Amino acid sequence: MIKRFFLAIVRATIAFLVVTIGIVVLYKFIPPPLTPLMVQRKAEAVFSGEEHTAVHYDWVGYDDVSPMVFQAVIAAEDKKFVNHSGFDWDSIERAMAYNERKQGKKVRGASTISQQVAKNVFLWPGRDWIRKGLEAYFTVLIEFIWGKQRILEVYVNIVEQGHDDGNAIFGVGASAQYFFGKTPDKITRDQAALMAAVLPSPRRFSVAHPSKYVSGRRSFIAKQMGGIGRGYLKKVEEK
């Protein structure tokens, strides 16, 4: 009985590894057709009676995206992106200390771009420990199998950019066209900074109608982009 139990565990573990590693390898070469969050947004719309809500998601290759977009998201979300191996341990320690002081009143995260990609592409939204553990697992996998350029390419393509007039906007391809009426390679510094400014809460903040806070954050990000130039992106492309 015990032997059968352990054999079942071993088989399940092997199957899990084969399936998950296989999917990660597959997505190194092809765009994810959709993400769990896209499915959730559509389901939320249906259950709330907003069946007309459309999910907009148009994949764009790395070379067809303005470098300004990459500079903006790195400046806004993960300035150490090129140097860490998936986790920013200093930020994690600071976030844990902050959350301990606040006793759950306002939770501060410390997710890197790599962790956000792992969560958004492969997992369901949430903060439970099982999901966090799987997030760490997939983060290690994509860092090892994909490399930095592919992670950044996937990130700008699948990140949620907002919900506007019954339209759930995901990724630079859809948001560039929807909000600015142009292709992603034509995005300017200011537009890229605005798109990045809403990322902490894309359903609360709006690219189409930026609040005073978003406008201020856009200006701050635009200034920070000066430290993330072509040399930085060159390092990303080499990793």
What does this structure look like?
- This protein is mainly α.
- Helix content is 60%, strand content 5%.
- The chain has eleven helices and three strands.
- A three-stranded mixed sheet has the order 1-3-2, sandwiched between helices.
- A hairpin with a 2-residue loop joins strand 2 and strand 3.
- Helix 1 (2-29) packs across helix 6, helix 3 runs parallel beside helix 9 (189-197) and helix 5 (113-122) crosses helix 6.
- The longest helix has 28 residues, at 2-29.
- The model has no long low-confidence stretch (mean pLDDT 90).
Write the layout of secondary structure elements.
Layout: H1 2-29, H2 36-47, E1 54-57, H3 67-77, H4 89-102, H5 113-122, H6 129-145, H7 148-158, E2 160-164, E3 167-170, H8 171-180, H9 189-197, H10 212-224, H11 230-238
Parallel strand pairs: 1-3
Antiparallel strand pairs: 2-3
Helix pairs in contact: 1-6, 3-9, 5-6, 5-7, 9-10
